[in-house]
Amino acid sequence: MPRSLKVRQPKVAEVRRLQALLEDAPDARQGRRAEAVLLYATGMEAVEIAQVLAAHPNTVYADLHAFDRAGLASLQPLGVSADAGGLTPERVRDICRLADTAPYELGLPYGRWSLSKLRDYLLKERVCRHLSREHLRRLLRKGGCAFGASGARSSAMIRNGGRSSAACA
Length: 169
Fold this sequence. Notes:
Blueprint: H1 12-23, H2 28-41, H3 46-53, H4 57-70, H5 89-100, H6 115-124, H7 133-142, H8 155-159, H9 165-168
């Protein structure tokens, strides 16, 4: 049995705009949202709409609830701003230079960076507004930074003549 859905029905003017939007939807996601709302307006349940659209029922529920909250504005694509995160190529180079600097040179109480420590430092110093560890890892790799490189040799490997400590035991 499908769960109950308390979403308002679209008004006649909204249905017309949805049909027009469906004809020239620039984005496939936007078209699916419009079609889901139109099918809901015909009296179909969310699970039936999901089968018709070959989408997951939770996606259809999310689309319908978004329409209930924001109306036709929920169908507009979110878009990405030109300043996505504010990371210009110059700022990425600065982050790479910072990653190559030892933390103790900046007055921090540890000897090397981890992604978490570097991310926390960047956010604290307001180098960027928001940055995930995964995004930081990709930026460092793309920037050519040797931070966390798999070919890096630890001091234990150097002491053991290039063999891992497990091989020396």
